[in-house]
Amino acid sequence: MTLKGWIILAVASAFTGIMAVAAYQGGQAAKYRKLDTAHRACVASITPGARADLQPRLLCDDVTADHWAASVKAAACDRALNAVPQDLHGARAACSAPVMRLHAERTAADTNLKNKTDELVREKASRQAAIARAAADAQVKAERTARREAVDARTPRGADGRAVCDAQCLRDRR
């Protein structure tokens, strides 16, 4: 082969290589455009407020679709538990067993706290009533003692120093 043949072969090989690289890159670009379009469709299907006809299970990979389904279920659970009054049917349908167990524990704890608070309020009222009764009893006892002492001071004394008390005197001592 002559020099001219080698030059033609080298140019043809370079041209063929360039064409192969261009074709490969063109194929890669088309592949990436397709992936970008698929990704955009997936993102559009999982964004909040997405159209109902877009189905993430069909447009996204399994992991993304599973995460989307879990987030939708968690949002439904939150809405059911935060509703006033609580939507327990919706919570049972949307929330997982650990969430429902935690919710039941918190509800029981809240109820227990309310019962204990009510019990403390009743106990405090009972204690205050007992204090008021004791104060009234002490006042009555003090009045009676003062009245007896006043009657004793007015009662005439006999020769032996003892009080001589008639029926009226005894009635006054009460």
Largest sheet: none
Unreliable stretches, pLDDT < 50, 5 or more residues?
none
- Number of domains as seen in the coordinates: 1
Query: Quick one: overall form?
Result: rod-shaped
Q: What's the gyration radius in Å?
A: 48 Å
Reading the helices and strands in chain order gives HHHHHH
Structure classification? mainly alpha
Total number of helical segments? Answer: 6
What share of the residues lie within helices? over 70%
Which whole number gives the mean pLDDT?
A: 80
Q: N- to C-terminal separation? A: 150 Å
How many E strands?
A: 0
Account of the 3D structure:
This protein is mostly helical. The protein has one domain. It has six helices and no strands. It has helices at 3-46, 56-59, 62-82, 88-94, 97-154, 167-172. Helix 3 (62-82) runs antiparallel to helix 4 (88-94). It is rod-shaped, with a radius of gyration of 48 Å.
Structural topology:
Elements: H1 3-46, H2 56-59, H3 62-82, H4 88-94, H5 97-154, H6 167-172
Helix pairs in contact: 3-4
Write a concise keyword list for the protein shown above.
6 helices; 80% helix; mainly alpha; 174 residues
Short description:
By secondary structure, the protein is mostly helical. It has helices at 3-46, 56-59, 62-82, 88-94, 97-154, 167-172.
